[in-house]
Design a protein that fits this description.
Blueprint (H helix, E strand, L loop, with lengths): L11 E17 L8 E4 L2 E4 L8 E27 L4 E7 L2 E4 L3 E2 L2 H7 L5 E3 L4
Parallel strand pairs: 4-8
Antiparallel strand pairs: 1-4, 1-7, 2-3, 4-5, 5-6
The structure holds zinc ion (ZN).
Zinc ion (ZN) binds next to loops.
Length: 124
């Protein structure tokens, strides 16, 4: 089996790391008014709408953004082969990085992540 790696040792590559942030839109429960319990026939019951939490998540969305790191040299390439897939990882700046996070040029990055927000010049 022949395995072609996209990059080679000694090449300088940009690293793009995807990060996620969850934003929740929360509203105070309109059944229990934020107490988490309701009075039903004289008994204190857990609010069925918010399940005792006192508030409800109207919606939540995961926003992703990408951080672009300065080009660093690849110091080693590691390929692991299992019966399911081939896993190519690179050691860059002391960290093991999957191939999909590495790019040769800024143009390639911009092309690849067209619609996403990029945060550039990440300092550690
Ligand atoms: Zn409630």
């Amino acid at each position: 089996m022949e395995i072609n790696t996209k990059y080679e040792m000694g090449q300088k590559v940009y690293r793009v790391v995807e990060r996620f942030q969850r934003i929740e839109n929360i509203q105070t429960c309109d059944i229990c008014f934020g107490t988490g319990s309701i009075n039903y026939k004289g008994y204190g019951c857990q609010c069925p709408k918010c399940l005792g939490k006192g508030n409800i998540v109207l919606n939540s969305e995961e926003v992703s953004f990408r951080r672009v790191y300065e080009p660093k040299e690849i110091t080693s390439v590691r390929v692991t082969v299992s019966d399911k897939d081939i896993n190519i990882r690179y050691r860059v700046d002391g960290e093991v990085v999957p191939e999909k996070e590495l790019f040769l040029t800024m143009e390639e990055i911009v092309e690849h992540f067209k619609e996403d927000e990029l945060v550039c010049g990440g300092q550690k």
